[in-house]
Design goal:
The complex is a heterodimer of chains A (375) and B (263).
Chain A (H helix, E strand, L loop, with lengths): L18 H6 L4 H22 L2 H26 L7 H18 L10 H26 L3 H23 L5 E2 L10 H7 L1 E2 L1 H9 L15 E2 H19 L1 H11 L1 H6 L4 H27 L2 E2 L6 H11 L11 H17 L10 H25 L3
Antiparallel strand pairs in A: 1-4, 2-3
Helix pairs in contact in A: 2-14, 3-9, 3-10, 3-12, 3-13, 3-14, 4-5, 4-6, 4-12, 5-6, 5-12, 7-12, 9-10, 13-14, 13-15
Chain B lengths: L9 E10 L2 E11 L4 E6 L5 H8 L7 E6 L2 E3 L4 H6 L2 E4 L11 H5 L6 E2 L6 E2 L1 H14 L16 H14 L4 E5 L7 H16 L4 E6 L2 H7 L2 E6 L2 E7 L5 H8 L5 H10 L1
Parallel strand pairs in B: 3-10, 3-11, 6-9, 9-10
Antiparallel strand pairs in B: 1-2, 1-4, 4-5, 7-8, 11-12
């Protein structure tokens, strides 16, 4: 008998990965490369307008607000579900807060402050998120359908409430500028990282034509995005809850068999997307002092797209916060910056994003197949 | 000779299970001893699945009594059974392919510090335990961070078995662990079973269709047919023909051959 290597075992058949091999297997590597390409491309074609202080502020504002809801969509998608109601939830939450600020708290609770308006709205949206989650896990219906229903329901309710209580108008504008003297409103509508821009001014970069400081700081939503990203990064990659989220999305039957509270995880994440949508709305309302029934339209699809571009697998169980950060940067940057490039029709950004989305989805599926061995 | 002295780890006494008018089990008794592999054999529909589901707490018996370490027990839920030390490794193994070996090993029972459920997992400690527990039953996982989807079928079985043992299984129920595997993988699983047996404290109930596999590892046999025990014994007491005959539900091979010849 011809025995060439008697000590060979099953585990020897798997080549040990090099550091590099491990790196290119990470879920966020595609999004990271894409982001670098776009940053370089923009530097070449429109560096002077994209990377000046105002360009940075505007770009990060768009990126940050998309990033907030993309993180919610990403976590939910890792757990194997969708939420198409994010956009309508933004409209609903914005309407609720602005209306309370203008007409006072409901149920005769008196005058509203930014804090009470925010908290009361948050209680409502978390309640709706909880309801959506319960319907999904108890009925076993696809979350696609359930949240699609809430996309219509919430948008409709938002318009009805506006017409009913706001003298027939579906928008509110001209609210007082609360962020001027209310700290809580300033937290959402004010500015962050002012010291960075002061520093830029000191070194002679952030100067306008009159020789004064040009840009004073970033929108607060950028800071919220960063905080949210940091917290969710730790939760997803390091905590027990993170393990439960991955387990729930990968195979919920085996997760349940091992004692993972699958239902609670899903309901909690539907509430988290509602939380993200409310945060988004608060930043918008207290920044612009306006609200509109159409706010947040189609944002749910952008959030899902950013999550997919960031390496989140549509069927669940795989994805990362780092990836969704890069995904949000790609999306926000392209959406905002293409308009700076004079020789490109601005609407090409949609063509570009569609293409990127398709490539990302192919890439993700490829990674998933490689891991599960089904080549 | 296998010693039949001492108390059995698990004793099933006259287990009857009826689903409406259908009698799935009609008074089944069996004893399972620590450090032994007890093969449970029988054709499809013989009642093997019903029996292990009763032992795993999924079904409650219509009548009859289960004893664990001499004490009568009543499993109302799978959780009761797990707590009493009955670990079941089902065919699907309850593993998640996209997750790492360690994350699968501790799924739902993570080691963490801080408030649940947002306590920080002690990943190093969990990696080390996973590695050590897998080595005990013979597989050296070089990288506990590798995804389970990249492991072979035999390695996955070993992972599921190691996990059940680590989380307190004294009785290990293996539901057809070799059925979906290739030759080489089957041998890996049989080796794992032997190593678990060698630990000496764990009783294994090995459900299989495969006569050869049962003869390779089992100390004791119970044959089921139509919900009843039609034969049992220790390895030394059974000749190869007996096993084959009993597995086919008691039909004589010669009769079968004759029947086949007439078609």
């Amino acid at each position: 008998m011809n025995q060439n290597s008697p000590k060979r075992t099953e585990s020897d058949r798997r080549a040990k990965e090099s550091r590099f091999g491990r790196l290119i297997r990470r879920p966020e590597i595609g999004a990271f490369s894409g982001m670098v390409v776009i940053l370089v491309f923009l530097a070449v074609v429109a560096g002077d307008v994209v990377y000046n202080p105002l360009g940075i502020k505007n770009n990060l504002s768009i990126i940050g607000q998309l990033g907030i809801i993309a993180i919610g969509a990403c976590l939910l998608m890792i757990a194997g579900e969708f939420d198409l109601s994010i956009g309508s939830m933004i409209g609903f939450a914005g309407m609720s807060m602005a209306m309370m600020m203008k007409w006072g708290l409901p149920f005769g609770l008196g005058e509203a402050t930014p804090l009470t308006a925010f908290l009361l709205t948050m209680i409502m949206t978390l309640g709706i998120g909880c309801l959506i989650g319960n319907i999904v896990v108890r009925s076993g219906l696809s979350s696609f359908i359930v949240t699609l229903a809430f996309l219509f329901i919430l948008r409709g309710l938002t318009e009805v409430c506006f017409r009913e209580f706001n003298e027939g108008s579906t928008q509110i504008s001209g609210l007082p500028d609360f962020k001027q003297d209310d700290f809580f409103a300033y937290l959402f509508g004010g500015e962050a990282f002012k010291w960075v821009f002061s520093l830029f001014y000191e070194i002679g970069w952030n100067v306008n034509r009159r020789g004064e400081q040009w840009v004073t700081g970033l929108d607060a939503r950028v800071a919220w995005w960063m905080v949210l990203a940091m917290v969710t990064y730790i939760v997803l990659s390091r905590t027990q809850l993170g393990n439960w989220i991955y387990a729930t999305g990968d195979n919920k039957e085996s997760a349940r068999a091992n004692g993972v509270p699958v239902r609670q995880v899903k309901i909690g994440l539907f509430m988290f997307t509602a939380f993200c949508a409310t945060l988004f709305a608060a930043c918008q309302v207290f920044d612009t002092n306006t609200a509109d029934a159409a706010k947040g339209n189609l944002k749910e699809l952008e959030a899902i797209a950013a999550a997919v571009v960031g390496g989140t697998v549509m069927t669940g169980g795989f994805g990362s916060i780092l990836g969704v950060i890069f995904g949000a940067v790609i999306f926000g940057l392209v959406q905002n910056s293409v308009f700076y490039i004079s020789w490109i029709d601005g609407s090409y950004y949609r063509v570009f994003l569609g293409t990127v989305l398709l490539i990302a989805a192919f890439g993700n599926e490829n990674i998933r197949k490689r891991i599960t061995g089904g080549i | 000779m296998v010693s039949a002295s001492g108390t059995p780890l698990v004793r099933l006494e006259n287990i009857v299970k009826k689903f409406g008018p259908f009698t799935a089990l009609n008074g089944v008794s069996m004893d399972v001893y620590p450090g032994e592999v007890h093969a449970l054999l029988g054709d499809n529909g013989a009642g093997k699945s019903t029996l292990i589901k009763i032992l795993a707490g999924v079904y409650q018996p219509t009548s009859g009594q289960i004893h664990v370490e001499g004490n009568p027990v009543n499993f109302r839920t799978p959780r009761d059974a797990t707590r009493a030390g009955v670990g079941t490794v089902y065919q699907d193994l309850a593993l998640n392919q996209l997750m790492s070996v360690t994350r699968n090993f501790f799924m739902g029972r993570e080691i963490y510090s801080g408030p649940a459920p947002i306590g920080i997992m002690k990943m190093d400690e969990m990696d080390r335990i996973t590695h050590d527990e897998m080595i005990k039953i013979g597989i050296d996982i070089s990288d506990p961070g590798q995804a389970v989807g990249t492991m072979s079928g035999g390695q996955r079985q070993t992972l599921a078995i190691a996990r059940a043992i680590y989380f307190g299984a004294k009785v290990l129920i293996l539901d057809e662990p070799t059925s979906a595997l290739g030759q080489r993988q089957q041998m890996e699983v049989l080796k794992t079973i032997k190593r678990v047996r060698a630990l000496g404290t764990i009783a294994i109930i090995f459900i299989t269709h495969n006569e050869v596999h049962s003869k390779l590892v089992a100390d004791r046999f119970t044959f089921l047919s139509l919900g009843e025990v039609i034969g049992s014994g220790v390895r030394e007491g059974l000749a190869g023909d007996d096993i084959r005959r009993l597995m086919a539900g008691g039909a004589e091979m010669a009769d079968l051959e004759m029947e086949l010849a007439t078609i």
